[in-house]
Amino acid sequence: MPRVYRRQRIWLARFVRRYPLGAAAGIAILGLTALAGLANQLAPYDPLANDFGTMFAAPDARHWFGTDAFGRDVLSRVLYGARTALLVGFAASLVGATIGGIVGVAAAYFGGTTDLIIQRLADIMISFPIIILALAIVAILGSGTFNLIAAIALSFVPRIELVVRASALSVRETTYVEAARAIGARHWRIVFRHMVPNVTAPYLVMLTAFLGQAILLEASLSFLGLGVNEPTPAWGLMLSGAAVEFVQRAPWMAVFPGLAITFTVLAFNVLGDSLRDALDPRLRT
Amino acid sequence: MHGSHAPGRRPELRIVAVLVTGLLLWLLSAPLGAQQPRTGGTLTFIVSAEPPSFDAHREVTFALIHPARPHYNLLVKFDPLNYPKVVPDLAESWTISPDGTTYTFKIRRGVRFHDGSVLTSRDIKASYDKIIFPKGDVISVRQGAYTMVAAVEAPDPTTVVFRLKWKSPSFLQDVASPWNWIYKADIIEKDPHWYERNIMGTGPFKFVEYVRGSHWVGVRNEDYWVKGRPYLDGYRAVFIGNAAAQVNAIKSGQALVEFRGFSPPQRDDVVRTLGSGATVQESGWLCNNTVVFNSRHRPFDDARFRKALSLAIDRWGGSTALSQIAFVGPVGGLLRPEGPFATPPAELEKLAGYGRDIAAARAEAKKLLAEAGVPEGFEFNLLNRNVEMPYRYVAVFLIDQWRQIGLKVNHVVKETGPYLADERAGNFDAAVDFNCDFYDDPDLQLVKFLSVELPNGSVNGLNYGGYIDRTLDRLYDEQSRTEDATRRITVVRQYEKRLLDEKVWQIYVLWWKRIIPHSTKLHGYKVGPSHYLEDLQDVWISE
Amino acid sequence: MARYLTHRLLLMIPTLLVVAVIIFVLVRVIPGDIVELRLVSGGSFVTASVIEAERARLGLNKPIWRQFVDWMSGLPRFDLGTSMWTAAPIAKEIALRFQLSLQLAIMSTLIAVTLALPLGIAAAVRRGTWVDHVVQILSVAGLATPSFWLGILLLLFLLSNFHWLPPLTFTPLWVNPKANLLQLIWPALAVGYRYSAVTTRMTRSAMLEVLQEDYVRTAWAKGLAQRVIVIRHALRNAMLPVVTVIGLEFAFLIGGLVVTEQVFNLNGIGKLFVDAIARRDYTMIQGLLLLVATVYIVVNFLIELLYVWLDPRVSYG
C-alpha cells in the first residue's frame, strides 16, 4: 500500500475513534448515497407512475410508506428523492464552496484593490439573508433543479469566500510564500503549492456545513413553489402543497419526506461538526 | 279548491288561494328548519389573494370583487340565486327597441351614495363612459367587450340609453358584468383615478378599513335602498394565501366561508372537523384548463401530432380521479358542461380524445405519431404556471398520460409573470393555459381561439399558438350574428369540431368544479358557476 | 474611540449606496412584467394600447437611467417611491408589516436566548457528560428540522387537540396584548427553536474555548466557587461570539421568515417580499432589499458597539 494512503488511513482511524458520532453520520451518508444510487433497483414502483386506483393508500405491505394524491408510491419517491436531495446538496455546496474558495484565495493572494472590491461585494451580498438571496436569484433564473442549484450555490459564495480568505490571508505573509515570490515563482504555482493546501481544511468544513443548508433551502424554495418541479421526486416538493393540505387525511405523505430531510441534514451537520473539530477547530460555522 | 272556478277570475278567491298556499308552504317548510333571515352579526370570510387597486373597471381579479363589490351596485345584475337570469339592480326596468340597437334603462329614485348624495342617470353615464370610452391615461380592461356601443346617453335623471352600432344578442349580460360598478359622476370628473385608491358607492355596505396583507372591513349601509337589507351588521374579509391556513381558519371557526372555491381535500378536511356544522355547495365552474400547442414549433405544426396528444388523454378516467384531489372534474368541450350551450355527451364522445375507450384512442394516437414521423421517446417541454391548484395537478396528470403513448415531457414551471411572457413570446412547445369568465356566452368563450391575425388586420393577442385558421374566424362571425338560437348552436358545434377534432390547435383538459364548504351559520348564499358574481346583499348568519 | 465610531457610521453611507445600485440592477434583470401580470393574468383580453398606457403610467417606459435617478433622488429623503402594485407609498407599506416582523424577531430572540445560554453553558461545563450529549442532540436536530415544517406540526397539534388556532389578523401589542401574544407566540416558538439551536452551539463552543484559557484555569486553581468563575470570567468573554450570532440571527428574522410567515399567515416583511417578487413590484422589491440590507448593516454596527462594551481588551484607537 502506498505511503500516502496509509497516512490517510491512520487519520481516518483516529477520526473514527475520536468522533464516533461523526463516523456514524459518515456511514449514514454513505448508506444514503447507496440508496439513492440504487433507487432504480430498490424502489418497488415507478416514482412517476400515476395510479388512480390507489390514491391516498395508507402504509401497508404493498406500499410501505403509503401512496400520494396521484397514487404514486411514497417509498419509491422518497428513494428517488434522495437522488435529488444529494444532487442539489452536493452540487450546490460543491459549486458554491469551489467558487467561494477560488475567489477567497484570489482576494487574499492579490490583496490591494482586488481584495478590497471583492470584500465590499461579499459584505454586501452577506447583508441579505441566504433565503432572500436565493429567492431573488431563482426569480431571475426561473425554477427547476438546475437553476435551483445555481441559486443556492451563488448565495453560498460570499459566506464561504470570507472564511477561506481569512485562512488564506494567514499563509500569505508566511516566509515561504515570500520566499517563493522572491525567487520569481509564477502566481498560480505559489497559489497551488502553498496556499491551496492551507485552505483545504476550511474548504472541506464549509462544504459539509453548507450541504445540509442546501437541502433545507431546497425544501423551503420548493414549499414556495420556486424549487424543483413536478413530477421530479424531491423531498421538499413532496412536503409542499398537497402534503400540507392532506396532512390530516394522509399524514404519511408529509411525514416520510419530512423525516428524510431531517435525518439527512442531521447526518451532514454531525459529520460537518466532527470534521470541523478534527480539521480546524478554530472555525465556527 | 272551489269547484271549477279558476281563482284568477275572482279577486277575493285569488287572495284566499295565495294565503292558503302561503300558509301551506310555511307549515311545510317551517319544521324543516327554514329560518327567518336574522339581522345582525359580522361575517368573516377568506379571500385568497389581494387586490391591486380598488377600481373594478381596471382590475381583473376576484380578489377585488369579494371584499369590495358589497360597497357598490351595478346597473343590472345576474340573479345570485338563479344564474343566468338578469335582474334589476340600480335600473328598476328596461326596454329594448324592436331592432335591438337601443337599450333604455329606468333608474331607481331615491338611491343615495354613501356620502349622502342622490344617484342619477348622470352617474351611470359617467361610469359607463369611463368603461367604454376611457380618456387620457385611464385604463379600462374590458373596453374591448363594448365595441358595439355607439353612445351612452342620460336624457333625464332617471333614464339611461345605450345606443348600439349593431344588434348584439348578449348585450344585457354584458351590462350585468360584475366589474361595472357605478361610481359618482362628480368624483370621476374631478379625478378619474380617485376610485383606484378610494371607495364610495351605493352598495349595501360602507367601507371601514383595509389593512394591506391582512383584512378588509365593511359595515352596514343604514340607508341602503333595498328595505331591510343587508342583513349583516358588517363583514370582515381576511386575506389568506396559503391553502392549509385557509382550511385551518374555517375549521377553527374564525372564518365562515371562502367564496372562490376549495379543493376536494380542503372540503373533506373542513367537513371532517366541523361535521354537521358544515354545509357543502358545489357547482360547475366557468373556468377550465386548456393546452395550447405552439404551431410554430415542429412537430406541433402537424395536426396529426396534436391530435395524437389529445387522443392520449383519458378525460373520463382523469375526471373521476382528479376530482378527488383538485377542483377540476367535468368533461367538456368549448362550452361549459351543464351550461346553456353545452355539447351533449353523446356528441362530445365523437370528438378526438373524448371517447370512452381509452385503449383504442391510445392505439390510434400511436398510429398518428408514426404517421407524423414522431419517434418513440420524443421529448418536449410543457410550460406551466407555478400555481398549485389546479395547474400542478393537471400537469402531473398530462405528463403521465403522454408518457403512456411513449412521449417524454419536461415540466417547465414558471412564475405567473415569466409564464405569461413566454406564452406571449411563443417561447414554449405546449403550455397549460386557462380561461375564466362570468357568463357562458359563445362570443366570450370562443374569441380566444381566433387566428393570431384577423382578416381585418387586428391582432388576437391571446392566440399564443400562433396559427391562422380562416374557417374558425368565419364560423365565429357567423355564430355571433345568428339570431336563431338553435341555428347558432349548430354553428358553435362546427366551430368546436374544427378546433378540437380536425385542427386540434388547442385542447381542453377538464373544466373546473366550484366547491364551497361553509359553516351552517351562513345563509342566503347559493353557489353559482362564476366566482366573480358574489355580492353580500342577501347573505345572513344565524347564531 | 468616538472618532472610530463616527468613521464607521459614515462608512455605512457608501456601502448602502452600492447596495442600492446593485439592488436596482438586480431587480431589472428579473424576467416578467408587472403590467402583464396585473392586466392579463385574469385571462381576459386586453389590447396592446392599454398595456402601453399602463406602462407609461408606472413610469416603466422611461429610460433605465431616468428610473434610477428618480429612485435615488428620493432616498436621501427616505422616500422609497410608491408601490407599482398598490400605488401606496413603499414606506407606508413596509411600516405596516415591520411592526409584526420586529416583534416576532424580538420574541424569538428572547426564547432563543433564554434556552440557549443555560443549555450552552451547562453543556460546556459538563462536557462529555449526558447533559452535553442531550444538549448537542437537541441543537443539531434544531438545525436539521425545517422551521416551517415544525410550524405545520405545531398548528396541527393545536387544531387536533384544542380545536383552536391563533388569531388570523395582527393586533398591536398595546391594543390587545392577549390577542397579540396568542398570535405570535407559536411562530416565535417554531422559529425560536432553530434560533436557540444556533445560539446554544455557539455558546457551548465559545465557553469551551474560554474555559481552556490560562486565566480561567488559574481562577479554578485558586479555589473560587465554580459558579463565580464561570459567570464572572468565562461567560463575559465567551459572550462576544454569542452576541454576534444573536445579532446576525436577529437581522435575519427581519425579512428572512419567508416560509414561516406563509404557514402562520403572518402579515410580515417576508410575506411582503414573496408577494412583491411574485407580482414583479419592482419598487417594492427594491425597498425591501434595501431595508433588509440596512437592518443587517445597522445590527453589525451595534454588535461592534457591544464588543467595546463587553470586552475592555478590544480598543479602537
TrEMBL record, chain A:
Keywords: Cell membrane, Membrane, Transmembrane, Transmembrane helix, Transport. GO terms for cellular component: plasma membrane. Its main location: membrane. Signal peptide: none annotated. The keyword Transport applies. The chain crosses the membrane at residues 21-39, 85-110, 130-157, 203-229, 250-271. Residues 82-272 form the ABC transmembrane type-1 domain. It comes from the Bacteria. It is found in: Cell membrane. It is a multi-pass membrane protein. One of its GO terms (biological process) is transmembrane transport. Belongs to the binding-protein-dependent transport system permease family. This is ABC transporter permease. It comes from Candidatus Segetimicrobium genomatis.
UniProtKB/TrEMBL annotation, chain B:
Coiled coil: none annotated. Residues 85-450 form the Solute-binding protein family domain. GO terms for biological process: peptide transport. GO terms for molecular function: peptide transmembrane transporter activity. Keywords: Signal. It holds the Pfam family SBP_bac_5. One of its GO terms (cellular component) is periplasmic space. InterPro entries: Peptide/Ni-bd, SBP_5, SBP_5_dom. This is ABC transporter substrate-binding protein. It comes from Candidatus Segetimicrobium genomatis.
